[in-house]
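User: I'm designing a mutation panel for Ceramide glucosyltransferase and want to avoid disrupting the core. Could you give me a predicted structure to guide residue selection? Please restate the sequence first so the numbering is unambiguous.

Assistant: Good idea. Sequence first, for numbering, then the predicted structure tokens:
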Amino acid sequence: MMMIYGAGLLCLALTAINFISIGIAIARARPRRRPLPPPNRAPAVSLVRPVCGLDNYCEETLGSSFNLDYPDYEVIFCVARAHDPIAPVVRRLIADHPKTPARLIVGDEKVSHNPKLNNCVRGWDAARHDWIILADANVLMPRDYIQRLLASWRPRTGLVCSMPLGSRPQNLWAELECAFLNTFEARWQYCGETLGSGFAQGKTMLWRRDIMERGGGIRALAAEIAEDAASTKLVRRQGLVVNLVDSPFEQPLGFRAIREVWMRQVRWARMRRKTFPIFYAPEIFAGAVFPCIAAAYVASAMDWSVGGVALATAIAWYVPEALLAWTNKWHLSWRMPFLFILRDLMLPIIYIDAWITNDFVWRGNEMSLREEQPSAERG
């Protein structure tokens, strides 16, 4: 009987936590009705964007750098190799927007095994202003991008971030990526921050230069395999916190292959396990698989309809998740509930993989979590 009570309690507790997390995300990520105006005495901002290769919608996402409704900012693009196919695209965009101070820096600095961090270092060093944003090339910036980041800065803030919001999926697997990015990962990120445990997300990071420099400078981010994990630890060592922007910024997806989605999710999971193992450990309970199994076990023991109880539990999980997407105007189609289920069936496999696998490939670079990362001094 204790096993039945325990399974029932597990199902109810996890379902209640799921409801709470969805409520937090609905409140925090509701889209703004009107763009934010620039603040009074708006500080000058440097926008550093590492680029590598041609992404879906790259001209639009990079071009959004030039259309910001902000009075004083510069744009610094960084590319590791002069022959990268994205370089002429960036040069053309710079030439087409002569009123925005912008430049392209060619050549990286090998401070770590992380090619993105290596690509950012020279851009950071070249930034003229004390407020610096590091933003991935596939982030689509709204006109009030900078002011929304600044609006999330608080007295104890050390870093403001935005997770990616998947949009414009053009095939089934891109919709699956939306199921991972939006109503799952973004939701739990907001929940963690609300509980006082915010984590950096490398897609968009707003820094104040003095905070980075007190932590050892941008080269200190080489201490971890992922620059966002290193950023989180750098900020927390100073007694500061990571805040998230209200309503995340879009990442247009276009077409995705299932392998591409899978490899991205296992890479992120392996890095979370490596950099924050204590926080990663309970992730196995974040999806609906275990609540449904627990509910089915109780139903079987009580001679109830196993299928009916499991279905009711799944509905209790996925209807609120669909409501989250609908309320916040995130991508939602008739296929999404089925993709929520597929995602949750994938999660235990991803979770186990993260504990037993240390190697991955990112943009053609072979990386290993077993290798000790080089320090900033060695870079």
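For picking mutation sites, this is relevant: The two ends are 60 Å apart (CA to CA). Residues 37-154+201-221 form a domain with the Spore Coat Polysaccharide Biosynthesis Protein SpsA; Chain A fold (CATH 3.90.550.10).
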